[in-house]
């Protein structure tokens, strides 16, 4: 009986330590939906090109209302495209996406 209680206790400790980490990993980072929109816009501008690498390069808070998410994409042919995604912070809505080819 004592052995079973220790096993259950060990299992509960393991679960309590692992669940918060798994829960956090299951959630998309804040920038994920903006990165997806940037890739969609890039594929419109550069049809037939596939993204080889995706690099989130941070967020800039422009004002109380606006923020910008920055991405660098490397295409299959090796060229690079920067994407600047301007977002309304309060409404959580896209304002504009600007693409710039080159480094």
Describe the structure.
This protein is of the alpha+beta class and 103 residues long. The chain is 38% helix and 38% strand. It is built from two helices and four strands; from the N terminus they run H-H-E-E-E-E. The chain has helices spanning 2-26, 32-45, and strands at 51-61, 66-75, 80-88, 93-101. A four-stranded antiparallel sheet has the order 1-2-3-4, covered by helices on one side. The chain is elongated. Residues 8-12 and 17-26 have low confidence and may be disordered.
| Regions with little confidence, pLDDT below 50 for 5+ residues | 8-12, 17-26
Shape: elongated
Under CATH, the topology of the domain at 32-101 can be stated as: Nuclear Transport Factor 2, Chain: A
The H-and-E topology, N to C, reads as HHEEEE
Question: What's the arrangement of secondary structure elements?
Answer:
Elements: H1 2-26, H2 32-45, E1 51-61, E2 66-75, E3 80-88, E4 93-101
Antiparallel strand pairs: 1-2, 2-3, 3-4
Give structural attributes.
103 residues; Nuclear Transport Factor 2, Chain: A; alpha+beta; 38% strand; 38% helix; 4-stranded antiparallel sheet; single chain
Provide a quick synopsis of the model.
This protein is an alpha+beta fold and 103 residues long.
